[in-house]
Design goal:
With 859 residues, this protein is an alpha/beta fold. The chain is built from 29 helices and 29 strands. α5 (147-165) packs across α21 (595-606) and α6 packs parallel to α21 (595-606). The longest helix has 20 residues, at 23-42. The chain is globular.
Length: 859
């Protein structure tokens, strides 16, 4: 295998951009991939479970038990932990299943295989910590205290806050480090142990959606009525063409039993032509792509408008589908009372409010994609029958990302591919699932009905009583299982206003790193949180001293998956549903406790222990979970059978959403007001008249809602970058092999294998005298990052990309580049959120952290 540094340099020098990649570099790349595959294959027997699990791997192991990697990568991987003398000595992969889609072995990726380095990490929390009096959050000054003292003090502070502000002042922060568990789950918030306890004690201020999908989650109700996935990726074998908008399953769904395996197998067996539309030439482009369309970040809606313009001009769109299943495409299919020329076709033809025809020449200036390529792409997508169109969650994580998500949905509708085998809805790929009924997690109801966007919590700390539906997206809690905000309406269907009464005064963070690090604008977040007059109590429960833990008042040491037993429903395995029951491999380390026991003791101090536990142990709740799940699906084994098996899998079949709607839209209407696909949303038109921007944050002025999935030029978008001398480069943050968000970000093996860098195009680097491997500063008004340049043709010119999730490490005393903010520290870890903004998207109030501009200079 070639030296990795030399290999990367040679791939870039030989222009690893698909058709232009040299044979020499391609063979080297293939060698690396093949070597990795061989390494994985050598770790497991060819087929079937091991008859002697104590001998496999570590001959001296006393036992081998099933465990799991539970992080938020979209997969859920079984691990077999080998133990000797109470210590995990080896981590083995799944050794059941085969190499066929639908019964595949679920092999963990490099992250899960390195989990021993998380269990025994130098950053592992050992004792309960309390911030020393007189110090500020983030100073790193702690004193060790007992569990009893910590829980007594936390309970007393909670009672005091409740007495002064009520339950609306309590907030459970977003965290997905253990979302793959049941009793130990960290998300969704209403499924967590702390949420159940709070429900028994009067409730809390909830949040809707998640940092991954806020914009697309809020786009769905105004197009499809509810969350609708696209077809599962195994179904692409039925497609003539597969189109990925910012979808990168070979990095974001990396496990061997997930979509890395499935997409490669489908490509191998069906040779489906695959086009990847992305600012980066991603691993998915490298692994299964036939063509890379390199566009500027945040411009998907402009590209799609121009493609549909071409389709309409050349009669390539599916007018029959649009007429039967949709409203709002043309003037003949608008809701009663809609303004004239408000249809999408009028928007395309320049008859709408902006008066601009959405020609390929118009889009080329915005997207950077040449007009000839736009025309070619439009014709190919329109004429491929069927065409599997899907999107990752990168395109929607922008300012006005809701419109970008709706635009990709629209392309699937205009080409008539919805509800077909080999087609797709334009959403993220779907998957089979077991449908585990989590009776402990959803057995209580939050008495508080108010809810805010997952990204609005810092605003609610600073501006709580100023926030309402119209200026901040405050709403009513939706029905259980509904992911989007429920906007209250009056009897006539007009939006009404819900207001927060108090600010957030306590934040609970469990199994996540979103207090600081995974939220935008690290430096501003820290500034808000260090002010104890605003948020009075921050408690973090985790297994590591994370960035978020640094800014807590109390840090509670939790247990890892190896130190507890649980149920882990699988995800993103195509037509195969599966789940894992993990065993406790080792005793809890140090003074660590599992979150259920922590909340039980805290509930006792708050007077709600009986309501919280209902007299059941942790294992009894898990047994109830399996029993309830078996009532819905008798194929699921009993708890004891499943525990013995470790991994249970079941073939369910490909996912093809909206087949019933396509078969009979009258008998199977959507949950939109019209029952149809709403290209023009009358509700958004009404909301646009009511919603305001900039009431308590003037920088939000200028944001707007649109009834159509229009391209809207936004703050710090491509046109602003092009016009700016100070910050001429866009910057985005991509998912990375070395960590899942920030989880595994402190593991030595992965840091060595996947060091932090900033991707920069060769032309942009040459202009600045930067070579591959140089130390560089990336900066804007919000922060300065010091990292290593990855000079490559695998990113569109004018754009940088920094792998997200690196652990924010602010340092003083560095000589700053000219133009950098002198009042802020230098982040030497390379967290992209030291550069991103807290400016939310207009509809979802979501994290638009892919919308940012910055400068790059050699250090």
């Amino acid at each position: 295998m070639p030296d990795s540094k030399v290999f990367l340099e040679e791939v870039d020098r030989d222009s690893a951009v698909g058709p232009g990649m040299s044979r020499r570099s391609f063979l080297k790349w293939s060698g690396v991939v093949g070597g990795s595959a061989a390494l994985l294959a050598a770790c497991a027997p060819a087929e079937g479970p091991s008859a002697h699990p104590g001998v496999e791997g570590d001959p001296g192991a006393e036992k081998t038990v099933w465990s799991a990697c539970t992080v938020n990568c979209g997969s859920r991987c079984p691990l077999r932990l080998q133990v000797k003398d109470g210590v995990v000595t080896r981590v083995l992969p799944d050794n059941t299943g085969d190499d066929e889609i639908g019964s595949q072995t679920v092999k963990a990726c490099v992250r899960g295989r390195s989990i021993r380095h998380r269990i025994y990490n130098p950053d592992r929390l050992k004792k309960v910590l309390k911030r020393k009096p007189g110090t500020k959050r983030g100073d790193g000054q702690w004193e060790e205290i007992t569990w009893d003292k910590a829980l007594d003090e936390i309970a007393a502070k909670m009672k005091d806050i409740k007495g002064r502000y009520g339950n609306e002042a309590f907030y459970i922060q977003y965290g997905t480090g253990t979302l793959g568990s049941t009793m130990a789950t960290s998300w969704p918030p209403d499924a967590t142990a702390f949420a159940r306890m709070m429900n028994c004690w009067g409730g809390y201020l909830d949040h809707y959606s998640d940092y991954s999908t806020t914009e697309i989650t809020q786009a769905y109700p105004y197009f499809y009525g509810d969350w609708v996935s696209s077809n599962s990726l195994d179904d692409a074998q039925n497609a003539q063409l597969q189109v990925f908008f910012g979808n990168n399953p070979l990095e974001t769904r990396m496990s061997g039993g997930g979509y890395t395996f499935i997409t490669q197998q489908v490509k191998k067996k069906s040779s489906v032509r695959t086009i990847v539309i992305d600012p980066r030439y991603s691993e998915t482009s490298v692994g299964i792509g036939d063509e890379w369309v390199a566009l500027r970040p945040g411009t998907d809606a402009a590209l799609i408008a121009a493609m549909i313009y071409v389709m309409v001009q050349e009669g390539l769109h599916d007018q029959a589908f649009l007429d039967k299943y949709c409203i709002g495409f043309d003037e003949s299919h608008m809701p009663a009372g809609a303004p004239a020329h408000a249809s999408y076709r009028s928007y395309l033809e320049g008859k709408g409010a902006d008066g601009i025809e959405k020609t390929p020449e118009w889009a080329a200036d915005i997207t950077g994609v040449p007009p000839s390529e736009i025309r070619k792409l439009a014709r190919e997508i329109a004429q491929a029958k069927p065409c599997a169109i899907s999107q990752g969650w990168g395109p929607q994580r922008h300012a006005n990302g809701e419109a970008a998500a709706r635009a990709i949905f629209l392309l699937a509708a205009v080409t008539g591919n919805i509800g077909l085998k080999g087609g797709g809805t334009g959403g993220r790929e779907g998957t089979a699932s077991l449908g585990v009924k989590r009776v402990f997690n959803f057995g209580t109801k939050n008495p508080s009905m108010k809810i805010i966007s997952v990204f609005s919590w810092l605003d609610a700390i600073e501006h709580g009583p100023e926030m309402d539906t119209f200026n901040a997206g405050v709403g009513e809690k939706p029905e259980l299982g509904v992911r989007a905000l429920k906007v209250p309406v009056d009897e006539a269907g007009n939006p009404t206003n819900t207001k927060l009464d108090v600010p957030i005064k306590m934040v609970w963070q469990y199994g996540g790193n979103s207090v600081v690090n995974q939220t935008g604008d690290n430096n501003r977040s820290v500034e808000i949180l260090r002010d104890e007059e605003k948020c009075e109590l921050i408690v973090v429960c985790d297994i590591q001293m994370t960035v978020s833990a640094r800014y807590a008042d109390y840090v509670l040491p939790g247990t890892s998956t190896a130190e507890e037993f649980d149920i882990h429903p699988g995800e993103n395995s195509g037509p195969m549903a599966y789940g894992i029951i993990s065993e406790q491999a080792i005793e809890p380390l140090y003074d660590c406790r599992n979150v259920h026991d922590i909340c039980t003791d805290l509930a006792k101090r708050l007077g709600v222990e009986d309501a919280y536990t209902e007299g059941k142990t942790r294992e009894e709740w898990l047994r109830d979970t399996v029993d309830a799940s078996r009532e819905a699906d008798p194929d699921i084994p009993t708890y004891d059978e499943w525990r013995s098996m470790g991994l249970f899998r079941k073939f369910v079949g490909p996912v093809v959403p909206l087949e019933d709607f396509r078969d009979d839209p009258v008998a199977n209407p959507l949950s939109t007001p019209s029952g149809k696909i709403e290209i023009y949303s009358e509700r958004l038109e009404q909301m646009a008249k009511k919603w305001t921007f900039g009431d308590f944050r003037p920088e939000l002025e200028g944001d707007r809602l649109t009834a159509l999935p229009e391209y809207v030029e936004t703050w710090e978008g491509p046109l602003e970058a092009r016009a700016s001398k100070k910050y001429p480069l866009q910057i985005i943050g991509h998912h990375y092999k070395g960590r899942t968000h920030s989880t595994y970000g402190n593991v030595d093996w992965l840091q060595e294998a996947h060091p932090q860098t900033v991707w920069v195009n060769t032309l942009d680097a040459q202009e600045r005298g930067i070579k591959n491997g140089d130390e560089v500063f990336v900066y804007n008004d919000r922060g300065t990052v010091k990292t290593i340049a990855r000079v490559t043709d695998r990113i569109v010119p004018g754009t940088m990309s920094m792998p997200q999730g690196a652990w924010y490490s602010p340092e003083e005393g560095h000589k700053l580049p000219e133009g950098a903010n002198p009042d802020l520290p230098v982040d030497t870890a390379g967290s992209v959120n030291s550069l991103t903004s807290l400016h939310p998207s207009p509809l979802a109030k979501g994290n638009a952290v892919h919308t940012a501009i910055a400068q790059l200079v050699k250090a």
